[in-house]
Amino acid sequence: YEAVVPHWFYCKVTDSRERWVPFSAQDSERLEEAHGAGKEQDDVVVPTSGGRYDVRLRTRQRVAVYWEEEVSEVRRCTWFYKGDKDNKYIPYSESFSEELEEAYMIAVTLDEWKKKLESPNREVIILHNPKLMVHYHPVASSDDWVSTPTEQGRPRTVKRGVENIAVEIPSGEPLQIDHLVFVVHGIGPACDIRFRSIVQCVNDFRNVSLSMLQAHFKKAQEQQQVGRVEFLPVNWHSSLHSTGVDVDLERITLPSINRLRHFINDTILDVFFYNSSTYCQTIVDTVASEMNRLHRLFLQRNPQYGRPLTGWGREPNMHRSKLVSRKHDPFWICSQGSRTTSSMRGIEEVKEILRKLELSEYCDVFEKEKMDRQALFLCTETNLKEMGIPLGPRMKILHYLSSKTEMKQHRDCVPSKPQHPLLSQVSANYPQLDYKPTIFFAFGSPIGMFLTVRGVKRIDPNYSLPTCKGFFNIFHPFDPVAYRIEPMIVPELEFEPMLLPHHKGRKRMHLELKEGLTRMSVDLKNNLLGSLRVAWQSFTRAPVPALEAGGAEAEAEAEAGTEKQPDTKPEEPPAAVKEETPLINVGRLNGGNRIDYVLQEKPIESFNEYLFALQGHLCYWESEDTVLLVLKEIYQTQGITLDQPLPGSQ
């Protein structure tokens, strides 16, 4: 007899259906170690799933750390039986598993089988031999008052030990966290075509990233240069719809087509909320406060972490790119610089004003008082007097301030051109982040559209996000919500977005076939036109002179004349077929590198663009190509590259 090796499971409830999921081998060992040490008396908390969930041993509960989620039941499992509906194995309770193990030990030791046990649900389990153990449903006799468990009904298989059941046990995630990425969702509570939440979709994205790290950063992993990237979801939708706006909308919503109207209220209206100054402020505050909260909590749980963070978001992302950040270097969105940077810029503006007024000798006084532009316009004569400014300079400064204030008031009173309320510029106070993001990835984002409808026709090539060095706009070619950014920076040029390399190192076969056929048709067309020209020239050639001596010279001149004709130039292949893409200067928004990246559509998607349009907007969560680009750009900031460079990548 050998004691059974336990494995820890947790119960996941989806649509009122229970499913028992095994912990990773790494997490199960930690839980078993804490259990064996007898620490359950103190309600020890064991972090699992990369630190995103805590398991409370004494209460057998699994609790989410970074977001709100229902508590899951946890079991130390040794015995299992096959369920009725999906034929998946379900663990017995810990107490009954101990009874089964004790009966099994006696049967093996004494070699006495046919043991019959009764479960707490009055179900019968019979141990026929080590390889045949069955579980019977309770079937009562005609007299319910004296019913006893019987061996009637359909038997279910019983297994001992997790190694004897068909279940995939993950090995676990690397302990070392190299980078932190905040993921901000788009409109609505559902994030994919299966109507899953942001937490579930980010879990898929994280799992794909782990497989891509193993496939493309194997050398760096072997040298322990690479651990993993942590992705944390940022949920703002629930906070927005908990303000009471749903109750107000319910009162004015028509009763017909109820499900469609509910979907519109819950999803589409988020766009209008964003264009409302009231609710836009709520969205911005929620995103910033949630990201700061997650960042603080992450640092508390991972004090050894000291690397940058990233972030990415989906439609609409305008407010995220305006958030101000400071302190640590995370990878998220970025914007107008840190508090220190903005205050220094304000002091420089005050110095410029003093130089205009020929009062440069007082710059040190204003800098000592940390007087920026906003504070300067709040100054009174008494304040300037307390700072030691003489009467003459005081009058100059006060006259300048009053003149600027009057100009502003006059400008505010002048009636402007009427604008559509939904397309006008939304005013919001953008809070600061507690860190400086490094890269911003936009997936299927309409940032370009929002900028255009708000009157921004062109982005200055010299513009860059002050606290964020990288900006990537990634989209599927059939995504109906995505818009490009690069044409707003260089509108005078027409060029294609960068084709995102396939994660296996080549273009998809149907795209290569399409380009090959296009190249072949161009070559055939050029050859055919060349043959027609030669035939036409033979008919239209000048008659041969009678003199024999000059015949050769005349023929040579005739051939030279036909070669000089401009219409003999062969047709150039289209841009899609050219092998080399010319270098294009797209400004400093992404450090001089390309910004727009387009995914390669799948072969089945190329048959009908409209049919796969919705799927095109929801495909990013499980796209290996997208994940690999994110990992490649993140680890390049650390000086770590792919094992094998992908063709066509920058």
TrEMBL record:
A Pfam cross-reference name: WWE
Region (Disordered): 547-579
Annotated DDHD domain residues: 433-636
Top-level division of the source organism's lineage: Eukaryota
Membrane spanning stretches: none
Ranges of Basic and acidic residues composition bias in the record: 561-579
Record PROSITE patterns: DDHD, WWE
Domain WWE: 1-76
SUPFAM superfamilies tied to this protein: SAM/Pointed domain
An example Gene Ontology molecular-function term: triacylglycerol lipase activity
GO cellular component terms, semicolon-separated: COPII-coated ER to Golgi transport vesicle
PANTHER family for this protein: PA-PL1 PHOSPHOLIPASE FAMILY, PHOSPHOLIPASE DDHD2
Protein family: Belongs to the PA-PLA1 family.
Listed name of the protein: DDHD2 Phospholipase
Organism from which the protein derives: Pteruthius melanotis
Gene: Ddhd2
